[in-house]
Hints:
mainly beta, 9 strands, globular
Amino acid sequence: MPRIQTPKNAVNSDFKVYPNPTNGLIFIENFGQTKIESVSIMSIDGKQVFVENFANAEYQRTLNFSKLNSGIYFLSITEEGGKLSRYRIVKQ
């Protein structure tokens, strides 16, 4: 089962996702050996509000949350090979 992390700067062994909470931009830093295949964002009610597929995204990605309403969102990062990491993000 994928982890859902809630600290201010959620970190697992492969990624750092910050700042959290955010007013707009979210930064994803990849410290792992695999590449990011895609990133998706779901609202608290389960609707997908954003998805982006990447070709060989290696070290850092920036996502713009500024057009989203304030609330709680779930950010999912899929790595090559299918590994999934999830984060709870608060949009102020």
